[in-house]
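**Paired protein data**
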Amino acid sequence: MNISTNTSGTGHVRIGSSSSIDFAFWILLQDGLHVSSFDKHTGGNQILQLHGMNPTSWLDWLKLILIHHDNRLAWHISDINQAVKDNIQSFQQVLDINHQINGTHNQDFYNTQHQFYWQQLTEQEQSYQEALTDYEGLDLDLIRNHLPPQLWQDGQEIRGLLTQLWDEYQLVKYSNQFISNILQKPHAWRVETNPPTNKYREIYLVDYPHEIEMFVPPIFAIVSLPNYPFDDAILEQRLFRIIDFSNHDFQPV
């Protein structure tokens, strides 16, 4: 996964891409299934639809793929006090050198670092606990340890077909270079520096031949980019708009 991250005092937004998430949208193009706003494509062999895939089951599958990517699930801090000590250990050498030169310990410096890491790690653990609440009742070990085809929950036949298509996808799927370029160069987009939310959000850029935005509760924003040049200012507006939209009172997965 490619990730670009900025934080602010109001909200926290991550922008990234993932071949696993992209796979779900590639499936729409291969089969021709129309789902929600992702209904602008034509063609497709309809094989998965003939075996029972429908917009509801596809969206349920996409949600599990997105949960697999939820960074909050990797933020558990079992002992915050010890974690704070570990994080400021790298500054200890600076403090020791300062003591040797000036004969005094910079207690203010130590206290500042301690407060910074304490707040950061406490918020991190709170986010982890929020994720557990969001996904209560789901088998998170299964979700985190399986590839997209194995996350399909609605029929063995479709799961088998998805497994075959996953292997094909690895061989034939081209890279959307414009998405890669976005994530490889620094930006100072307003959605990152001053996000229109006080909550945590993850934006995933996906390859789809039309410009679509979709919010998937509790934290995921999908923004599609066709594989051709785009206007940076328009993309920024799209990112800002979907995060602003995510502030509505959606029910969790």
